Amino acid sequence: MSGVLTVARLELKVRVRAGRWRWLLAAWFVILVGFTVLLRLALSRAHNLDGNVGTVMYGGLQLFLLALALLVMPALTAQSVNGDRERGTLGVLQVTGLSAFDIAGGKLLAAWGTACIFLLASAPLVVWSMVEKGVPAIRVVIVTLVVALLLGVICAISLGLSALLSRGTTSSVLSYLSVFALTLGTLIVFGLVTVATTQTRPVHYSTGDPNAPAGCCTTDETVARTDLTWWILAPNPFVVLADAAPVVAERPPVCRSFRTGGSVRTFCTVQPQNGVDPLGDISRSVRSLRSPPGQQSNVAQFQSGNRTPGGKDLVWPYGLGFDVLLGAFMFGVATRRLRTPRRTLPRGVRLA
Question: Where are the alpha helices (DSSP H) in 121-210?
């Protein structure tokens, strides 16, 4: 562990001496402040928020912060290994008593620590959201931990690519492509696979059913089997963040029932206590995808403090588990690529 800390201190000293991270941190904070101020001004003109805009402010801030972090964090690690190799400084570490794990772990710890500093820079804005009310402290703690863990995963992926590829430009591009695959890529694949797996089934309506087609008691409908494809969205960082966030207080759901083909179907809607909740809305939408056709509109199970009975429709443990395993795998790749002695070296690479 001492070797990991030694490499981490060395990496942090290099970053501090470079000085560029200060300007990046300042720009990061200014962008977050500008977004939060504009969001607060927009909410001041919104209606039906019951005077509490903290929930909307905090949810919007965290989603924007995660999006901004996914654009910035790969740059912290994407050239940490091959950049040192190109400058001829990596060999100096490899001929010391430091192991490959020490070098990889130290570089990851330094990048992750820098990412957490950027995350902590948003603390004043989080406090502002809490002052506006509607943001429980437990939500802040859990969301912060989840965001920090996701940033660590992105740093680990970038580190693995940096060790695997000989050129910094290539590893940087592939790091951003990895972020794209986890975010927009999962949405695109989910949409295409869901459309490809739709099914047609007969629906029987009872006499007097207001939803029955005119003069018809039986018809065919096309349904999307999202209960078979929801797992594609699970690794998405935004889905993980929203679904892991504890719910805010909600009003009891408003339900209505009607009989269809001898069975009773109940449809409910949930009204958040403090108005719109961006994180909660995403979570409810994603969890409803796990329900079989005909039950996805039944959200009576989304009760305050427990969106589903016993949490059976949780999505974030699967997504976060996949992301962490992916990060661990890429960290293992980096450790393996840093082992010495090496029989071969990439073309044009020098040791020192």
Answer: 123-131, 137-164, 168-180, 186-196
Per-residue pLDDT for 7 more than 60? yes
Q: Under the phi-then-psi rule, with left for phi > 0, alpha for psi from -120 to 50, and beta for the rest, what region is 54?
A: alpha
Q: How confident is the model at residue 298 (pLDDT cuts 50, 70, 90)?
A: very low
pLDDT digits (tens, 9 = 90+) for 216-268: 666 666 777 788 888 999 999 999 999 999 877 555 555 666 555 555 566 55
As a whole number of angstroms, the distance between CA 101 and CA 117 comes to 24
State both tokens at 137.
Answer: 């402290």
Residue 240: how many CA atoms within 13 Å on its side-chain side? Answer: 26
Check residues 203 and 111 and name the one with the higher pLDDT.
111
pLDDT category at 9 given cuts 50, 70, 90 is confident
Q: Is 101 left (phi over 0), alpha (psi -120 to 50) or beta?
A: alpha
Please name the residues in contact with 103: beta carbons below 8 A apart, sequence gap of 6 or more. Answer: 3, 7, 93, 94, 338
Strand partners, 257: 266
Q: Do residues 245 and 305 touch, judged by C-beta distance below 8 A?
A: no
The answer to whether 57 and 43 have CB atoms below 8 angstroms apart is yes
Q: Which two tokens mark 348?
A: 């044009």
Q: Where are the domains of the chain?
A: 2-191+316-337, 201-311
Is the model more confident about 198 or about 252? 198
- 30's CB contacts (< 8 A; 6+ apart) are none
